[in-house]
Amino acid sequence: MAKYDERFKQRLVDAYLQGESGIKALAARHEIHHAMLERWVAAYREHGSAALRSKYGSYDAQFKMRVLKHMWRDELSGREVSARYDIRDAGSVARWARLYDEGGINALVPRPRGRPRQMNASPPDRPAQANSPDTRPREELLKEIEYLRAEVAYLKKFRCAAASKEAGSAKEKTQIVRDLRQHHPVAMLLKVAGLARSTFYYQLKALHSDDRHADLKTKIRSVFERHAGRYGYRRVTAAIRQTGQLVNHKAVQRLMQQLQLKSLVRPKKYRSWRGEIGKAAPNLLQRQFEAARPNQKWVTDVTEFNVGGEKLYLSPVMDLYNGEIVAYQMERRPGFELVSSMLKKALARLGRKEHPLLHSDQGWQYRMPALRQQLKQRKLTQSMSRKGNCLDNAAMESFFGTLKSECYRPQRFSSVEQLSETLDRYIHYYNHERIRLKLKGLSPVQYRTQASRTV
């Protein structure tokens, strides 16, 4: 390796700092490697002209250990920490780290130069003793002691973590080795753990990557628990974006899988058929579930709940403009009064010029002359699904599926009264708080209110 005097180094450093040329161009002009010039500049900035003078000598084990700890703690490169401690040979730090991994702090002790001194052989006539002391070299004994200490420390940590689900996994072993690497050689810890070096560094990188998402994981769990597991990754993403944080839905999906957060699954709805009663209306809705304004298209249906053998029936009406539940009624029996009372509440919210289309299935309640007379008086047009085709009223069926999967099935109810109170709270939550992606991440009431302000 060529030697360069202090004046040559100073001239190149000054040329770079004065902006005459870049690092690579200046190094190529003087036929030196650009990494060497970078090291000179970094050392000059840190220690001044003294860092450019030739320096000889060795470093003790304590100094080397201090440099390594500084590098690991602040996550510096070997070149950066060499400049800070004025270490002229940039490869020294990497060499020290390798020696420490293999043999601990004892491997950092400088070796004496020259040939080792020859020890005088013991006299041949000395009798051998039966209980003679261990004749292994001191270095071998120290290495064995260091290994035993690492083994004891690892086993203590492993017993503390044995109750976790990931005990014995590569991730758990990596976490233990990472915690102990400041006190014991990595090579010995990996040998005790039975972990390959490549696996250790792969898992270590994955752990650092997980730490980057710690705040996002906290927000995801908070949103998920606040809505009692009703939100999947799409709604969780929308809720976090409403706070002003930009986040990708795929990242939220991956993190929710890691956290084992899974939204509730909606089972199929039970349906029954009573036969032909009254007169059916034509299917005027034709699965056009979008509305341009509030109170233009309504859909309705009846669903059943069972609590300890007692039944409760819910009859809501939904506005297809924003999915809002306009009115609802709950009764113990599915009589005509259930639908009639619900319709009276809904009609009370209409203005004089509002005449929505009311779509339902062909249930007997909707085919009664009394109900048809109510609609005729308020000039509402009636529409019905085709017989046995639930898809014609898919918007209402979707609401029932959401209601039962998010409110009814996850809980245990002791009485019908308790269920009724819970349904009241949920429908208010559904209208005012629960966001919908098709409504730009707003709740139905928020969307309707916002639209009315812009008109």
UniProtKB/TrEMBL annotation:
One of its GO terms (molecular function) is sequence-specific DNA binding. Residues 290-452 form the Integrase catalytic domain. Residues 108-137 are annotated as: Disordered. GO terms for biological process: DNA integration. SUPFAM superfamilies: Ribonuclease H-like (SSF53098), TrpR-like (SSF48295). InterPro entries: HTH-like_dom, InsJ-like_HTH, Integrase_cat-core, RNaseH-like_sf, RNaseH_sf, Transpos_IS3, Transposase_IS3/IS150/IS904, Trp_repressor/repl_initiator. PROSITE patterns: INTEGRASE. This is IS3 family transposase. It comes from Paraburkholderia antibiotica.
